[in-house]
Amino acid sequence: MFRDLAAFRATAHDLLTSPAWQITGHTPAAALTAAAAEAASPVEIEEVQQALLSNITTIQTTLKTAIQIKQQGTSSSEPNLNTAAIPITAADVTVDKLQKQLDQLSAGVAALRNAAAAARAPFGWEDGPLVVAMRRGELLLVDELNLAEDAVLERLNSVLEPGRSLTLAEKGGGGAEVVVGREGFQVLATMNPGGDFGKKELSPALSNRFTQIWVPAITDEAELQTILESRLAAAATKTLISRHLLDFWKLFVSQAPPTARGGLSVRDLLAWVGFINTTAHELGPLNAYAHGAYLTLLDGLGLGLGILAGVLAPLKQRCRSLLQQQLAAAEGGGAAAAVVAQAAGELQLDAGQPVDEVTADGRWGIRPFYIPMGSKAAAAAAARYPNPSSSSGPRFNWQAPTTCR
User: Fold this and answer.
1) Residue 57 above 80 pLDDT?
2) Under a CB-based contact definition with an 8 Å cutoff, are residues 301 and 263 in contact?
3) Among 219, 324, 221, which Cα is nearest to 261's?
4) Do residues 294 and 343 make contact, with C-beta atoms less than 8 angstroms apart?
5) What is the pLDDT of residues 64-118, one digit of tens each?
6) Considering only CA atoms, which of 72, 64, 70, 45 is closest in space to residue 105?
């Protein structure tokens, strides 16, 4: 945790706005008030603290003398005290009120010193999720447990013992603090099997402290469809799109080679759903569904798996055919084929005809994806092409060999 400047500034503000200033006839300097509100570096904090303490000392001296005057009814013996500026003759300014202000200033000075010390320190201790859960007696979820460093995992051993204790040797200070989990404190951890994508097995010492529950991959279609429907935003097409996603998933996992089946996990399906939710308002839900298939799976199918492209080509063609069948039911065969071809990146590049365009509302892109143009680019395009069309806007060479290959 970084230096707590806010606490120091708040404490200084409380002292600067204390009623004791008015009671004793003093006024804080405007420069001091501004410096206290902006103090950031250790030097600035020290300067504000010393200036404020000097003023507070003067006010405390005035209050003590005023209390003596009230109690004894005598003139002040302090040569530097302007008793005429102190409204001690007012009926509501009692000894108790003066003493209360004196006590509050003393407490404020102590708080200022502590806040200044904390603000000058480069770092401070702050409880993490584990310590917070132990103090509050709450449930702690540790996701992907076997991806943590061994030094981190070993710190959990004492927490998972019957004593449920943790020694905070890193906290420093007068001595190491021992935190004991309150009633209700529990630890729930999740992990994928060891050896899966570089994941490791837990040590026997840590593994024996948990009750292990094996959760298989989701294969129940009804459960998977419920998950997809809960994430899809458009209520009108929620059932249709989730059914299409489920049918696509069934085709893929049934016909893909074993090493490639992990390319369409539940996590990938949810990423696909996220793309649909983001783009459906512009593309339409079915078009967003088709483009999402290539974005999340088909464009990168087989990458990093060591599988020849020719082996996966028939699978990609079957997936494409399924997409066309699904879209054809709503848009017709010709329109569905065009949408899928566009999603596959098959742009119709005619010599001399640009592919990119600027829309009437000042967005640039390649149909159907557009991004807002910056103010300078939009102004230049409007000046050069007063009638936005497919031939207007900034030009890019889509016929370059690296673009067309």
Assistant:
1) yes
2) yes
3) 219
4) yes
5) 888 887 777 644 444 444 444 455 545 567 888 888 888 999 999 999 998 888 8
6) 64
